[in-house]
Amino acid sequence: MRHAMTDNLGVLETAALLRELTAGLIAVADFDEALDRLVRIARDAVPGVDSCGFTALRAGEPAGVAASDPRRGELDDLRHGPDTPALTAVRRREMIIAAELTGEERWPAWCARADALGVHGVISAPVDVDEQVIGAINLYADSPGTLTPRHQLTAMLLAEHAGLLLAAVRDRERATARAGQLDGALLAEGVIGQAVGVIMTQRGCPAPEALDVLRSAASSLDIPLREVAERLVLTVSRPRDN
């Protein structure tokens, strides 16, 4: 009965973790910010895990790290050496666990750094983000033997869910970049740029806000953006009767 209650508790904890992760990343449009949130949420929500990190690779090359404990960031950073649990997980496309690092022979240099930082257990799970970015989420325990099969299941579900959420973040990041390029092109375009200048002068607001005002007017009137801009410019340039 006690085992059943423990298993149920683990299911509830994992469900809560995935809900919190979704809520934390659902509207984020910056990949680095998403990674920072991911590692903090995982650290706080997974019992027995004292810190969490993420190792990211872009086109097969190191592309940054995130760490819930900045002091331990080097454990996730491949620039300190390629032989790490994270890279092993990525290369083998499988979860890697070392519940006790003492005597671990797979990553001797990394284990020495981990020991110096008070880490005595690790789980690394590969995370597929998109065609360009892959990585691994790394769960660290300060005490040997703390990480159990239940932690492995949690890590697997966390990695799968995180991959989906991070892919969506990457899509939003790209969409934001495209929108920024489009805004730049619009602001450089004659009559629209003039209309934005008029709104900036009238409202004392920056160009992006002025462009949003122009877009809102076009949407409300259900007419093209250029036509709204032309009308505004024509209105302010029309001579006033004395």
Automatic annotation (TrEMBL):
Region (Disordered): 63-83
Domain ANTAR, residue spans: 172-233
Species of provenance: Micromonospora sediminicola
Gene3D superfamilies, sorted: 3.30.450.40, Winged helix-like DNA-binding domain superfamily/Winged helix DNA-binding domain
Sample GO molecular function, one term: RNA binding
UniProtKB keywords: Transcription, Transcription regulation
Domain of life: Bacteria
Record-given protein name: GAF domain-containing protein
Annotated Basic and acidic residues bias: 69-82
